[in-house]
Design brief:
Chain A is an alpha/beta fold. Chain A contains 21 helices and 21 strands. Chain A has a six-stranded mixed beta sheet, sandwiched between helices. In chain A, helix 5 packs across helix 6, helix 9 crosses helix 21 and helix 16 crosses helix 17. In chain B, helix 3 packs parallel to helix 6, helix 8 runs parallel beside helix 9 and helix 8 packs antiparallel against helix 10. Classes of the chains: A alpha/beta, B mainly alpha.
Chain lengths: 583, 284
C-alpha cells in the first residue's frame, strides 16, 4: 500500500477503517519560565497519531518542532511550563505523570531517535551494550535472551554482520551504521510510537535514503512515527499528515498530499518554493525580502579583466594523508578541472569524497602531492606563498560555518576592513564607505557594522562572510558548503544573492556541496567525486538528466524530492534489506 | 531549542550567583591594593615601632591582630607587608606568563625540531619540583624577594606554557586563521592580529589566579626560611617569625595565614569569574 493510497483512504473514509488513535495532542502549549515570566515557544498544537501512520512536524530552527517532540516524551526540562487540553497516550494522561511513570513509558511505549548518533551514543560503550541497556532497564528477558534480541534488532535495522558490529564502539562505525544502531535502541522494546527528531540531518544522501527506508518499513509493521524535520522533501514520502510550524505555531496542517501539492499558507508555499533543484535553476527561490541588495558598481577588478582563458585550471591533483597507524589514504586522486569566467562549477560528493581537500588545494591553503593549479593563467600552486600573496585577492572563500571563520573578538566592521586589499583605499573614510557598500551588496543594513558575529543570525553571518569574500574584488569565489548549515528559507535567500552577485560582477564560483539540489540549482558544470576520484564530470544538464556513472545514478536516486510519486529509494542501496519480524 | 533555552536560563542563574562572589572578591582585592599603595590609610601605627611592654599581646581593640615578641602591632605589619607580598605575587605570576608565552609560542609555532626541544624543556621543568628549584636559586642568588619571584615564576611557568601552547594551536587551526591566510595576510600579521590576542585572552584569568597562588607559594618558601628576612613584614616572613611563638601566641601565625588565604581566595574567585565570562562571550 503506498502512501497515496493511505491518504485517499483516509480522506474518503473517516469512519470504521481508520486505524485507532495512539497519541492524541489537543491544544498543547509549552513555554519556558525565565525571570518569573513565561516565554511561549509552542502554541496551540493539536494532532492525532494513528496506528501505523506517520505525522511529520516540519519547521525551521526556532519553530518549536523539537520542543513539541520532547514534550511528548516528557523531556522538556525543569523550567518548561506544559499545558494541554489533552495529551493522551492510549488511556494514559501524559500531562500528569510522575518522573518514574515517564521512565516506564519512555523506551517501552515511546521510542526516541535523536539527531546525531555520534553524540547520542555513549562513546566508550559497544553499541550492542547500549541497546541491551534499554532492554535491561525495562526488565526485559534474561542475559542470553537480551543478547539474542540485540542481534535480532541490529539485523532488523539492516546492520550487516550484527554479531561483530554489536561489539564495536560508535566511533568505529560509519555514520549510517551509527544511526541504525540508535534506531535499534529506540526500537528495542517494540514501542508503539517512535519519535524521530531530525534522524537523517547529519547523514549523507545515500545513507539518508537507507534510514528513511527503514522508517518506512517500521511504519508498515504498524509502528506510529512522529518525524521531525526541517526538510519537507525528507518527510514527503513517509508522512501521512504534515504539520508546518513557524514561530511556535502550526501555520498549516493537513494530509501530506494536500500540504505538498496545494499548500494554502504563504509560509508553507515559501518553504516548498525555497527547495533548490534543477527545475528551479534561473528562478528566484525566496520571496523578495525587505533588505534587497543594493547594486553598486564598486567591484573594481580591471587588472585581469582582459584575461579570457579559464580563471582556474587544476591538472592531475593528488593528495595523500597518512593515518596515525601509518596507512596512506589518497584523499584526492588525479583530479583535473577548469573554471571559466562567470561560470559555476559544482563539486558534489558525500563526506570523505575529497571535495573539500580539492577546494583547499585550489585556494592554495593546502599543497598537493602532485599536480598543478593555475590561477588566471599564472602559476599558483607551484610558487611560494610570498609570490602567491599578490594574487590572493583574486580568489576568496566562503565556509560552511561562518562563526568559526570570524575572529570572535572582532566586530563586522573590523572583519570587513581587514579584508580590504592593502593600499586599495587612500583614506579611512574611503575604507569605511567600501565596508558599507559591501554590506549593502549582500543586503545587510549599516547598523550591523558594530555587531559581533555572535550577535548575528545564521543568515546574516553568512552574508557577512560573503561580503568578506567580495571585499578584495575577486574573480573567483570558492563556496565550501556555504549554504549547508542554513535553514531552507535562509538558504534560498543566500542562493538568490549568490546568483545576483555572479551576474553583477561576473564572478566564477567553485561551489562545493554534498547537496545535489543546491548544486543542480546553481551549477553550469558539475564534478561528481567519490573516494577522491572524479567519477563523472560534464555539463550540469547532462549529469542531472542522463547520469552515466552508477554512483551518480545512485546519488540522484537517493535524493528525496517533493514529488510524492517518487518512492523512497532506499531499497536498491540498502546493504541488507532484511525485514524479518522482531518478535 | 529546548536545550538552548535551558542553557540560557541556567547561564542567567549562574551569572547572578557569580556576581555576588565577583563583587566580594573585587572589593577584597581593592582593599589589598590600597594597602599596598598607601598602607598609612588602613593602619595608624608604625609597623616597626617596638614596645617590649606590649609584647605578645593577644588581639584586642588597640591591637586588632595582637602584637609580636617585640610588641610591634601585627595588623600594621600585615598592612605594610602587603606591598611586598603583592609585588612578589604579581611579579612571579607575570614572569611565569612571560616565560610561558615565549616557550608556548615556540612549542606551537616553530618547526618540528625547535618545537620538540622546547616541548621537552617544558616537560623537564614540569617534572622538576618547584621547591628544589627554589633551593637551588637561593643557594646561588641568596634569599631575597627577587629570588622568590624568579623561583616561583619559573616553577609555575611550565604549566602555563602548556596552556599557551594549546591555545595557540587551537587558534592556529581555527577557521579565522585560515580565512586570514586566504585573504593573503602574512604569517606575522596573522600571529599579531589573531593568534596572540586569542591566546592572551584566557591568560587574563589565569594571571589573576596565578597572583594568588604565587603569594601562597612565596609565603610557603618564606616560612621555611627561603624568603625575605626579618624585619621585613612580608607575609611569609611574618609566618616564619611567628613560628617560634606558635604555642604561646598562635595569632602570630594564624592571622597572617588567614590574610594570605583571603587574598588567594579573592584572586582565584575573580580569575574564575573572568574566565567564565570570557568563555560565555565565546560560546553564548
Amino acid at each position: 500500500m503506498t502512501i497515496l493510497d493511505i491518504d485517499t483512504e483516509q480522506r474518503t473514509n473517516q469512519l470504521d477503517s481508520t486505524p485507532p488513535v495512539r497519541l492524541s495532542v489537543d491544544n498543547l502549549n509549552v513555554g519556558f519560565e525565565r525571570h518569573g515570566s513565561v516565554r511561549p515557544v509552542v502554541k496551540n498544537v493539536s494532532f492525532d497519531l494513528r496506528e501505523g501512520q506517520c505525522v511529520a512536524i516540519v519547521g525551521e530552527s526556532g519553530s518549536g518542532k523539537s520542543v513539541t517532540a520532547r514534550t511528548l516524551v516528557g523531556l522538556t526540562g525543569g523550567n518548561a511550563v506544559v499545558d494541554a487540553d489533552a495529551l493522551r497516550l492510549g488511556d494514559e494522561n501524559l500531562t500528569a505523570l510522575s518522573p518514574k511513570r515517564w521512565r516506564s513509558i519512555r523506551g517501552r511505549r515511546i521510542g526516541f531517535i535523536l539527531q546525531d548518533a555520534l553524540v547520542s551514543l555513549d562513546p566508550l560503550r559497544p553499541v550492542g551494550k547500549e541497546i541491551e541497556e534499554a532492554l535491561k532497564l525495562h526488565g526485559w528477558g534474561d542475559r542470553t535472551s537480551r543478547k539474542r534480541k540485540v542481534i535480532d534488532l541490529l539485523t532488523s535495522v539492516g546492520v550487516p554482520s550484527p554479531e561483530n558490529r554489536s561489539r564495536q564502539r560508535p566511533d568505529e562505525l560509519s555514520g549510517g551504521l551509527r544511526q541504525r544502531a540508535l534506531i535499534a535502541s529506540a526500537l528495542a522494546l517494540d514501542p508503539e510510537i517512535v519519535i524521530a527528531d531530525e534522524p537523517t540531518t547529519a547523514l549523507d544522501v545515500t545513507v539518508q535514503a537507507q534510514v528513511l527506508q527503514l522508517l518506512e518499513e517500521m511504519k508498515q509493521r504498524g509502528t506510529s512515527i512522529i518525524l521531525i524535520s526541517h526538510d519537507l522533501s525528507v518527510v514527503a514520502h513517509l508522512a501521512d499528515h504534515i504539520l508546518v510550524m513557524s514561530g511556535g505555531e502550526v501555520v498549516e496542517q493537513g494530509s501530506a498530499h494536500e500540504i505538498l501539492t496545494a499548500p494554502k499558507h504563504p509560509y508553507t508555499q515559501s518553504l516548498i518554493n525555497a527547495v533548490p533543484s534543477r527545475e528551479t535553476r534561473g528562478t528566484r527561490l525566496a520571496p523578495a525580502t525587505g533588505v534587497a541588495p543594493v547594486h553598486t558598481a564598486a567591484h573594481a577588478n580591471d587588472e585581469h579583466a582582459g584575461f579570457d582563458g579559464p580563471v582556474l585550471e587544476a591538472e592531475g591533483l593528488v593528495k595523500n594523508f597518512t593515518a596515525p597507524d601509518g596507512t596512506l589514504t589518497t584523499a584526492v586522486n588525479n583530479v583535473s578541472f577548469t573554471l571559466g569566467r562567470g561560470e559555476t562549477l559544482g563539486i558534489v560528493g558525500e563526506s570523505g569524497s575529497g571535495k573539500s581537500t580539492t577546494a583547499r588545494i585550489a585556494l592554495a591553503l593546502d599543497t598537493a602531492d602532485a599536480g598543478t593549479v593555475r590561477l588566471l593563467g599564472q602559476d599558483w600552486s607551484a610558487v611560494p606563498e610570498t609570490k602567491r600573496r599578490r594574487l590572493r585577492k583574486q580568489i576568496s572563500v566562503v565556509y560552511q560555518d561562518p562563526l568559526s571563520s570570524f575572529d570572535p573578538r572582532w566586530n563586522v566592521e573590523r572583519i570587513l576592513l581587514d579584508s580590504l586589499p592593502a593600499g586599495a583605499f587612500a583614506t579611512a573614510t574611503a575604507r569605511r564607505e567600501r565596508v558599507l557598500a559591501l554590506l549593502a551588496q549582500v543586503g545587510l543594513p549599516d547598523s550591523v557594522v558594530h555587531r559581533f558575529p555572535l550577535q548575528l543570525s545564521g543568515g546574516q553571518r553568512q552574508r557577512v562572510a560573503i561580503a568578506r569574500a567580495l571585499a578584495p574584488s575577486p574573480s573567483i569565489v570558492v563556496l565550501d558548503e556555504a549554504v549547508s548549515a542554513l535553514d531552507v528559507s535562509i538558504q534560498a535567500q543566500i542562493l538568490d544573492l549568490l546568483v545576483d552577485l555572479q551576474k553583477e560582477f561576473g564572478l566564477s564560483y567553485l561551489f562545493i556541496s554534498h547537496d545535489l539540489g543546491v548544486i543542480s540549482h546553481l551549477s553550469d558544470r558539475v564534478l561528481v567525486m567519490k573516494d577522491g576520484v572524479v567519477v563523472e564530470s560534464g555539463d550540469a544538464d547532462q549529469i542531472f538528466t542522463r547520469p552515466a556513472h552508477p554512483y551518480t545514478q545512485e546519488l540522484l536516486g537517493a535524493l528525496p524530492t517533493l514529488d510524492e510519486s517518487h518512492t523512497v529509494a532506499g531499497a536498491s542501496v540498502s546493504p541488507s534489506s532484511s525485514t524479518e519480524g522482531q518478535e | 531549542m529546548t536545550a538552548v533555552s535551558e542553557r540560557t536560563v541556567t547561564a542567567v542563574a549562574r551569572k547572578r550567583r557569580i556576581s555576588v562572589g565577583f563583587t566580594a572578591s573585587a572589593i577584597t582585592l581593592a582593599i589589598f591594593v590600597v594597602a599596598a599603595l598607601a598602607p598609612n590609610i588602613l593602619s595608624t601605627q608604625d609597623p616597626l615601632a617596638m614596645d617590649f611592654t606590649q609584647a605578645l599581646q593577644s588581639p584586642s581593640l588597640a591591637h586588632w591582630f595582637g602584637t609580636d615578641e617585640s610588641g610591634r602591632d601585627l595588623f600594621s605589619r600585615v598592612v605594610y607587608g602587603t606591598r611586598e607580598s603583592l609585588a612578589i605575587g604579581v611579579g612571579a605570576a607575570g614572569l611565569a606568563i612571560l616565560v610561558a608565552l615565549v616557550l608556548g609560542s615556540i612549542a606551537a609555532l616553530a618547526g618540528r625540531i625547535p618545537a620538540g626541544i622546547v616541548n621537552r624543556l617544558i616537560e623537564v621543568l614540569f617534572a622538576f619540583p618547584t621547591l628544589l628549584l627554589a633551593l637551588l636559586l637561593v643557594s646561588v642568588l641568596g634569599a631575597s624577594p627577587i629570588t622568590l619571584v624568579i623561583s616561583v615564576g619559573l616553577g609555575s611557568a611550565p604549566g602555563y606554557a602548556r596552556m599557551v601552547r594549546g591555545q595557540i594551536l587551537s587558534s592556529k587551526n581555527s577557521g579565522y586563521v585560515e580565512a586570514a591566510r586566504a585573504l593573503g595576510h602574512s604569517r606575522f600579521t596573522i600571529f599579531r592580529q589573531h593568534i596572540l590576542p586569542n591566546a592572551l585572552r584566557p591568560l587574563i584569568a589565569i594571571f589573576t589566579m596565578g597572583v594568588g597562588q604565587s603569594i601562597v607559594w612565596a609565603s610557603g618558601m618564606a616560612f621555611i626560611g627561603l624568603g625575605v628576612a626579618p624585619p621585613s613584614s612580608e607575609w611569609g616572613a611574618l609566618l616564619d617569625a611567628g613560628r617560634a611563638y606558635i604555642t604561646q601566641a598562635s595569632w602570630l601565625v594564624v592571622l597572617p595565614g588567614f590574610v594570605i588565604v583571603v587574598l588567594a581566595l579573592a584572586a582565584t574567585t575573580l580569575g574564575k569569574h573572568i574566565q567564565s565570562s570570557l568563555e560565555k562571550g565565546e560560546t553564548a
